Amino acid sequence: MKIAVTFENGQVFQHFGHTENFKLYEIEAGQVVSSEIVATNGSGHEALAGFLADRSVNVLLCGGIGDGAQAALTSAGIEICSGAEGDADAAVKAYLNGELESAGVNCDHHHDHGEEEGCHCGGGCGGCGGGCHSAPGIEGPNVGKRCKTHYRGTLNDGTVFDSSYDRGEPLEFICGMGMMIRGYDAAVANMEVGQSVDIHLTPDEAYGYADPRAIFTMQIDQMPGSENLPVGENVVLYTHAGQPVPAKVTARDDTTITFDANHELAGQELNFHIELVEVE
Fold this sequence. Notes:
By secondary structure, this protein is mainly beta. The chain is 14% helix and 35% strand.
């Protein structure tokens, strides 16, 4: 698989149509094996779709993108993950870990006498959290910065489902880039180093709701290596494009095996105790 990222000074550039450089990543078995920076030489919007298709790109990570560009990329068979921001390498890592969700068409272009005025949003395209005209971006002094947090996550019945304290090592991520669930990101965005907060998240702010389409059954003889997978086993599957998909075996018989690719906490209300340890 080959991933392209709109690129400027190490960051995800926020306006697809004005991209001057892409960083291209070669992916094998879910890992980056090489990368290079290529110049677009002034190509714009629809021409960029052909530029990427000519270089066998499968996936585009970008900030803001309009519906015309999305249509051109889709026609070229390129998957789009918009709304990315921050460090380009970190965005690719988040995508490969299944932690990046696309914001869809999130840039509204206005035209006057045939000239494109560009992308309009508070603070300019580079300052839009999650891209222009997307769902409200996360705002706060820590957005775009590398943060380290300790946390303890519990269900409403008090069950601890995860804790960095137990591992003895804080969690490190770039705030506001989509590497974390939205509610966690939004809380950390406005915290100060040394501060602790307790938050309660609805499923919309956490892992969303279970999607019945993410439960699927396959023929065992079509999946070499699945013959001995027991029910309850957590596995990582890969799409045809090479994107990893975490899943759990939920049922099997002599000829078929059923997987559930929903997050195990989908549909759950979650509680977090968060301590901000460091901000770079």
